[in-house]
Write a structure and sequence with these properties.
mainly alpha; 3-stranded parallel β-sheet; 6 helices
Length: 88
C-alpha cells in the first residue's frame, strides 16, 4: 500500500481504499492498518459498512466512520438497497 500511495502522490493522485467486504481485508483492524499512511484516503460506502460481517458482529458503521473520518475523501453514489444497483 505504501508504494501505491507514494506513486499516486508522485502523480498528484490521492489513492483511496474502499471499505468492501471485511472478509477480503481480514477485519476492520487490517483495513485501518492499510490506510495508516496520511496520504491514503478512504472511499466510505455506508451501505457496505452496514451490510458486512463486522456490522453483523457489532462493529457499527458509525464506529468505523469515527475511526476513518479524517481520511474520507469520497463516497459512492450507488445504492445497495435490496441488492439493486441504482446509480445517481
Amino acid at each position: 500500500m505504501r508504494d501505491v500511495v507514494q506513486c499516486g502522490r508522485d502523480h498528484g493522485v490521492t489513492v483511496c481504499l474502499e471499505n468492501l467486504s471485511w472478509e477480503a481485508k481480514s477485519g476492520a483492524a487490517v483495513f485501518i492498518d492499510l490506510i495508516e499512511y496520511p496520504e491514503a484516503g478512504v472511499t466510505f460506502d455506508i451501505g457496505l459498512a452496514n451490510s458486512n460481517e463486522a456490522a453483523r458482529a457489532g462493529f457499527s458503521s458509525e464506529r468505523f466512520a469515527e475511526l476513518v473520518s479524517a481520511q474520507v475523501r469520497n463516497r459512492p453514489l450507488g445504492s445497495n438497497d435490496l441488492g439493486a444497483h441504482c446509480f445517481a
